[in-house]
Amino acid sequence: MIRETPTPYDARMQRLADTLFWTFASLWLAAALAGGIAAAAIFPAALELPLSLTGYEAFIAADPEHGRQLVAGHLVEQVFALTGGMRSVLAPLTALALLAQLALAPRAAMQRTRLIAVALAALALLAGSFWSQPRFAEEVSVYRAAARTGSIEEAAAMKPALDAAHVRATRVASTEVVALLGLILVSAWTAGRSGAGGSASFRASSSRTTRRG
């Protein structure tokens, strides 16, 4: 049985595909985490600060806790708006880089697992972009409209629906993050095994050459 020896061109293309995959996957994960990290930092801080927002003064004065959360929500949504566009670009780039990796190394381990992970992350991104996040945005818009008019009781009645929409959006976003973590961990594991295997093969080949000499 004749084994194909990778050419220098194949090796360069493999390194390029590897570099692009790790770059895009890492940036996608960072963008997916950014919104949650921003929310975890901003919301607790907002409760301790005397925040205000034009148009919501009456609501904030009547219900300081929820009023400050409303202001914090305005800040955090800017992070999600920025990272949402980034993730929409990085997702297909990551998938294409992964496909290039697998095409250049068709015998690589755990190919199906990596494909499932990137597909799950992409599906979660699509579900968030076209289902959970728009529904959450609708609930936020209605809640803010009631708060702006100073209708405290109406806003309070809308809060449970808003919280439920937030829970759905969070679960979908968490699925995207977990899938990306799985993709990166499995990819690192297979890369480590490939590297170890390559080193062992090189040492064995060198040993045989030495003995023949």
Could you please describe the fold and organization of this structure?
This protein has helices spanning 8-46, 57-62, 64-104, 111-148, 152-212. The chain is mainly α and 213 residues long. The chain has one domain. The model is unreliable at 196-213 (pLDDT under 50).
List keywords for this structure.
87% helix; 0% strand; disordered C terminus
Briefly characterize the structure.
The chain is 87% helix and 0% strand.
Share of residues in helices = over 70%
**Shape designation:** elongated
Q: Helix and strand string, N-terminal first?
A: HHHHH
What is the CA-atom radius of gyration, in angstroms? Answer: 25 Å
Total domains: 1
Task: Give a short account of the largest sheet.
Answer: none
Total beta strand runs: 0
The portion of residues forming beta strands comes to: under 5%
Give start-end ranges of low-pLDDT stretches: 196-213
Name the average pLDDT. Answer: 88
Helical/strand content category: mainly alpha
